[in-house]
Amino acid sequence: MGMKTETACLHAVRDKTHKTGSVAAPIYQTATFAHPSVGESTGYDYSRSGNPTREHVEKLLNALEKGAGALAFSSGMAAIGTLMELFSPCEEPEIIATDDLYGGTVRLFDRISRKNGIKVNYADTSNLPEFESAVTGRTKAVFIETPTNPMMKVTDIAAVREITAGKGILLIVDNTFLTPYFCNPVSLGADIVVHSGTKYLSGHNDTLSGFLVAAGAEILERLRFIQKTTGAVLSPFDSFLVTRGIKTLAVRMEKAQKNALSVAKWLKEQPKVTAVRYVGLPEHPAYELSRKQASGFGSMISFSVDSAETARSVLNRVELILFAESLGGTETLITYPVTQTHADVPEERRLSRGIDERLLRLSVGIEAEEDIIADLENALNLSA
Ligand SMILES: Cc1ncc(COP(=O)(O)O)c(C=O)c1O
After folding, report:
1. What are the structural domains of the chain?
2. From ligand 1's centre to the CA of 344, what distance in Å?
3. From the CA of 196, how far away is ligand 1's center (Å)?
């Protein structure tokens, strides 16, 4: 059906099996399913292998991402951890990953994947010549996060696809920041799309979840087998919460983006703010590229202040804005990457990327923009 994304968020999947006509997809809170007779199945056997409530959210996200199928996990990290099981140490696989990644993904790659014989090389994937020179005969996959967390660098997904085409290299894109509402990596050549559904998809800071969307059926079945075997599936109730969150994805993304642009413009004018990174500002180096490969800029901002004292004071003084790890929810959150999201990235690497004690990250929510700005004004301009 050729519906617009905002319509698809509500109507792409209808649960026709439910005889009451329930508008909300029912929650099948069950671990197992009874068989009609020996050798017969209702199509469901055991909730780790399949559950109708989970299937509903999987079909919904897949319809939005335009893949061959999606799998729902108990968290974004569970999804990425499962994904890494695609690679076998016998092949001595190498993965090229964006050098400015969510810290939890770096921890997984450096502390778990590496010991399992997978070598992850970091490169600035927004710099195409640097990326191309990192490709070797052993490269099995490229893992891109765009815009990056927290430095807001943007990678040209279609250009990376062109460089890797025909080399047997899987292109994996973490689309958490933009969601399928603003960006569709499959149409740009991605083989697998990753999500922390904890963020914009569920959108209310109330549940963890993760997704893998496969562009092709073969890779989907391999991932499905690994998921069923290793078991980090999304529970029926959390699946329901994500389905419910996706219903309002379009309005939340639009409102948060509008707020983010106002906040970014305001931050630029503040004497104690030394840098503002928001891809929706026309002076952002990737503004044009973002317009080319996405229909929006999202609502993540990072900014630097004049000293570590100012940064800490802002964190202590915000009242409306919550000093909390995470992003993409209805409430505006402020994060200190150096001690929170990126604490586990080795210091030298962290500092070389600009993640220092003066850096703050904002996930702009859907409050009135005046209230967000007033809170920042108080926190920033009353700071030491
Ligand atoms: C871009 C990105 N990918 C993946 C993750 C991991 O997801 P989760 O926290 O749901 O495990 C996060 C979490 O912050 C993230 O920001």
Report:
1. 5-247 (3.40.640.10), 250-381 (3.90.1150.10)
2. 14
3. 5
